[in-house]
Amino acid sequence: MPRKERVGVVVSDKMDKTRVVQIVERTSHPRYHKVHIQTIKFKAHDAENASKMGDVVRIIESRPFSKEKCWALKEIIKHGEEV
Fold first, then answer.
1. Which stretches of 1-83 are assigned E, i.e. beta strand?
2. Strand 69-78 to 18-28 pairing
């Protein structure tokens, strides 16, 4: 089974080898058809500390690195401005 991949923005780079990535999901209510915006934050492992705040990154599901960190940084799509 392929691993899940998600694209989001780095919102925190204060931890060593860890980045907090925020992902915005837009879903439509099945009955009322109102668009619901939901933000989710994932902690991702960045071994080289390559990404900075504001970067658009792709993360991939991986083995657990710690209690809350089970995603790894796959690539930096675009370097961005600080949030």
1. 5-12, 18-28, 35-45, 56-61, 69-78
2. unpaired
Distance CA 29, CA 51 (A): 35
CA proximity to 73, closest of 53, 54, 55, 47: 47
- Tens digit of each residue's pLDDT (9 = 90 or more) over 34-74: 999 999 999 999 999 999 999 999 999 999 999 999 999 99
| Domains identified in the chain, total number | 1
Is residue 54 situated within a structural domain?
yes
In terms of DSSP bridges, do strands 56-61 and 69-78 run parallel, antiparallel, or are they unpaired? antiparallel
Q: Is residue 32 part of a domain?
A: yes
β-bridge mates for residue 35, sequence order: 28
Which domain, by its residues, includes 41? 5-78
Task: Look at residue 83 and tell me if it is in a domain.
Answer: no
